[in-house]
Amino acid sequence: MQELADLIRPGLKVLFSGINPGLLSARTGHHFARPGNRFWPALHQAGFTPRQLKPAEQTELLDLGLGITNVVDRPSARADELTKAEFRAGGENLERKVLEFAPDWLAVVGVTAYRDAFGLPKAAIGRQNRTIGPTQVWILPNPSGLNAHYTLPKLAIAYAELRTAAGLPDLAPAPDQVDPAAS
User: Which of 83, 99, 116, 138 is most deeply buried (CB count within 10 A of its CB)?
Assistant: First the structure.
């Protein structure tokens, strides 16, 4: 099983960090590739993208000032297979990436992963009081289908709060502008 390459470059507005690659993502080379994962629909419904991208279209995010990495590089079927040591090492590695590429925002998708990676057991969803260099930090709900507490509409609202804080325009078309033939 190969490592999943980061989708990253200097000058990003938001760098999203998943917990770790799923097995399908590692096989395909596409972030958030599992069909039940709601990252791509939440990203679109939150207004980050003008249409819902497919995992294979992930490089289009770079032109929108967005990127993707992971806290832990090791692929697994479930995040609960990762060790505390992997999370701590992943947090250090993620911090190095953020310092190197200096995105405006780091958005970690998963509060437990953030807590474990950075040793902050009381961290909560939303904007964090800490920065990594000049980069501001935000925690988003995990878009995995296993996180049933957050419905897709709730995920979209949480993601839109970050988009607004980051000063990014709402790229999702208004409901009256959606072409029914495109569905």
Answer: 116
